[in-house]
Amino acid sequence: MAEPETVQRRTWAIGDYRSVGARFLFAAELLAEAAGVRAEEAHLDVATGTGNTALAGARRGARVTAVDLTPDLLEHARRRAAAEGLEVGFLEGDAESLPVPSGAYDLVTSTFGVMFARDQEKAASELLRVVRPGGRIALACWTPSGYMGRMLALNSKYVAPPPGTRPESRWGTLDGLRELFGPDVRIEAERRDLWWRFSSPAEHVRAWSETYGPTVMAVEALDESGRAALVADLAELVHELNTGGETVLMPLEYLEIVIRP
């Protein structure tokens, strides 16, 4: 059996997360505003992916360090920063064991990233470790009731996760956040929708099963009949939530969170 870190790295290297991440850019900008990014403050972006939130912080003058487990995504984020003339430090590292000092950051962020850590409690404790006293942790996390939370649950229905694994969308609930971060923090949370647009429902299902790592991994693990069943369930979910008729205009509900330890 592959090591969890190896599986995580492959999950986000497979498919085409660069195109997926481009669709999440608006949520990163909103999170930077909710977090109140300030010029010259130390900002750590965890599980940065394509760098959306790291770049949002750098545009606002913060001194940004971005961490991710996947070298290809880090290189893409590095090229994006260079193209904009932004200074961002990039580190390869795991959200469960961040390669940075304790209490070093005024702001720690993660947009649809840290919620995928295998050991959720360990990842949450790492966020608390690296933020300075009086700092903020700002997160964007998919809710269980929205499209992404339900889609991830479908993946788990067809390909069982390791025993003891908690749903990723636990991070998108107040109860889950209180379990993860404990009673001694102040949590502010607001539900938001990120709107998804595709030319047709069929195009969305095709693209999603070929580009989004967790779904690509599920499709790869199934036989032909299993793949067909998963794709049919995804199509039904899109049909239920789509407001765009023959095209796709669909809300992706998430929780925008600011935690003050």
Walk me through this protein's architecture:
The protein is α/β, with parallel strands linked by helices and 261 residues long. It has a single domain (4-195, 253-260), classed as Vaccinia Virus protein VP39 (Rossmann fold). It has 11 helices and 7 strands. It has helices at residues 4-13, 17-22, 25-35, 52-59, 71-84, 120-130, 147-158, 174-181, 201-211, 213-221, 224-241; strands spanning 42-46, 63-68, 88-92, 105-111, 131-142, 186-198, 248-260. The protein has a 7-stranded mixed sheet with strand order 3-2-1-4-5-7-6. Strand 2, helix 5 (71-84) and strand 3 (88-92) form a beta-alpha-beta unit. Helix 7 (147-158) packs antiparallel against helix 11 and helix 9 (201-211) crosses helix 11. It starts with a helix and ends with a strand.
Features of this protein?
261 residues; alpha/beta; Rossmann fold; 11 helices; 7 strands; 45% helix; globular
